[in-house]
């Protein structure tokens, strides 16, 4: 029979496991789709947050949304990239999490999301919680059960 990690873990706050904002690749409102594509390509990440000048979270951008926005009838219209703004094509409908939320909530959400953006009460972007970090914590707890 498989033993599950005890509930203490699920009830712990996520705050200690956040990748802090200064380490997270992002783009800003007002940046062009060309700039966003450059950042996505250079960092290798499939999606990154969009922030405003005050570091408030505004949305997510990925290469698929950019390509989709410049898709013509029979070719990709790359010449439109400099004029297209990230705020016009970013995704805004995604679950967010707060620094004092619990692992249980993050675990449920990370089943469908690669990562979660962490936003405080004032809407400020605190960082991200990734699937990788969550899986590492789960693995640690599972192995501890057998020590
Ligand atoms: P993806 O870019 O699709 O990356 C999927 C997984 O591939 C990552 O899982 C990580 O294990 C690995 N990976 C991708 N690019 C990497 C890189 N440049 N350096 C090291 N490992 C890399 P997670 O670590 O769980 O990240 C989940 C998602 O969170 C990523 O999806 C990305 O969209 C975002 N992300 C992670 N760290 C980020 C950062 N520092 N800045 C911006 N976005 C980040």
TrEMBL record:
What NCBIfam families would the database entry show?
A: CBS_CbpB
State the superkingdom: Bacteria
- Which Pfam families does the entry link to? CBS
Alphabetically sorted, this entry's keywords are: CBS domain
Q: Does the keyword Hydrolase apply?
A: no
Gene3D superfamilies assigned to the protein according to its UniProt record, in alphabetical order: CBS-domain (3.10.580.10)
Q: PANTHER family recorded for this chain? A: CBS DOMAIN-CONTAINING PROTEIN CBSX3, MITOCHONDRIAL, CYCLIC DI-AMP RECEPTOR B
- Repeat as a keyword of this entry, yes or no, is no
- The protein depicted here goes by the name CBS domain-containing protein
Protein source organism: Planococcus lenghuensis
* CBS domain mapped to chain residues: 20-71, 86-138
**Record-linked InterPro entries:** CBS_CbpB, CBS_dom, CBS_dom_sf, Diverse_CBS-Domain
């Amino acid at each position: 029979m498989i033993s599950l990690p005890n509930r203490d873990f699920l009830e712990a706050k996520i705050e200690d496991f956040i990748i802090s904002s200064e380490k997270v690749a992002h783009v800003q409102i007002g940046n062009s789709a060309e700039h966003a594509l450059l950042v996505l390509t250079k960092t290798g990440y499939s999606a990154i947050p969009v922030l405003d000048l005050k570091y408030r979270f505004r949305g997510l951008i990925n290469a698929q949304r950019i390509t989709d926005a410049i898709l013509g009838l029979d070719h990709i219209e790359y010449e439109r990239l400099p004029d297209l703004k990230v705020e016009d094509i970013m995704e805004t409908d995604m679950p967010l999490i707060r620094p004092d939320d619990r692992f249980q909530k993050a675990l449920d959400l990370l089943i469908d999301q690669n990562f979660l953006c962490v936003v405080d009460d004032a809407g400020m972007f605190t960082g991200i919680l990734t699937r990788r970090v969550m899986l590492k914590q789960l693995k640690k707890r599972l192995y501890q059960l057998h020590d």
